Amino acid sequence: MRKAEIKAWEDGILQVSVPMDPPLRWVNSYIVTEPEGGITVIDPGPHTAEAELAWQGVLDELDLSWDHIRQIFVTHHHPDHYGLSGWMQARSGSRVWMSERAHAEARMSWGAEATLNESLPLLFLRHGMPEELVQGVREHLESFLTQVTPQAEVSYIDAAVPLVLGGREWTPVLTGGHAPGHVSLYEAGSGLMFCGDAVLPQISPNVGLQPGSDPQPLLTFLEGLRMLRSLPVRRAFPGHREPFTAWAERADSLLRHHEERLDTAAQLLAGGPQSGFAVCEALFRGRVNSAHQLRFAMSEALAHLAELVRRGRAATLTAEPGGPLLFAAAER
């Protein structure tokens, strides 16, 4: 079992590296010390036996009990951020905060109301992914249920109302693209930002198209990224990798990355109509080694194709009987 690492930052912020599955291997949780002696936990991590033990070790090292947890804040619904919140809530009695849209995405993904485990594989089939690969994605999706069980009783964040953490008011900043209803927290006085996966150093947040969710995730992501870039951030605390300071530069790099990927996808279509899966293979050739990576790659390829269609640079073609949907370069 891997032990969670604790690193202290300014203003009473502790970074807790919680173990998770490859390829990322670690997710950043954060502890904010409250004036009365309790703590707020941001993004507790996935619900696994290893993460349970890691958190017990963190509390022991800090000489804290579960009762010290006053509230849990979740930036978005992905299992590596949201998954442990229900388990932690049951032990601490604390409230769990997330956006209403993020909670709706969680319900769509897991539990009695879930539809994603069937609708996403069907979408991939329609866009040309072979059945044997689709089955691997289906099994991969089903494997997440234990990582989000039990699910939390959630209180909804009002984006117009500041959240109080560590005795200070933080502004909720709603964005999407990586995850609908993603909430970052910004404290203007200090220039500090808890940004979840909205902006990551060194790696690009996955931007994926999913049925029943945002039909234009890349557009949403780019708009949110431009808005986040406009904020004067002194230090950002991301969901993965290390806290960083070059906020505007990193946002600019991500904006360029997606424009370049759009251009690459458009060049692929210039050679003739392509299925979404064919574009996915060309964009991510050699970098997909698991069903997890394939799901992200396929969803991201479809998100970029949807944006090309929106911009008038591509068009969808009616599928031949039994064949996949195709994308073609738009006539100019």
UniProtKB/TrEMBL annotation:
Function in brief: Counteracts the endogenous Pycsar antiviral defense system. Phosphodiesterase that enables metal-dependent hydrolysis of host cyclic nucleotide Pycsar defense signals such as cCMP and cUMP.
PANTHER family assigned to the protein according to its UniProt record, in alphabetical order: ENDORIBONUCLEASE LACTB2, METALLO-BETA-LACTAMASE SUPERFAMILY POTEIN
Domain of life (superkingdom): Bacteria
Pfam family, one: B_lactamase-like_C
Domain Metallo-beta-lactamase, chain residue ranges per copy: 26-240
Catalytic activity: 3',5'-cyclic UMP + H2O = UMP + H(+); 3',5'-cyclic CMP + H2O = CMP + H(+)
Annotated protein name in UniProt: Glyoxylase, beta-lactamase superfamily II
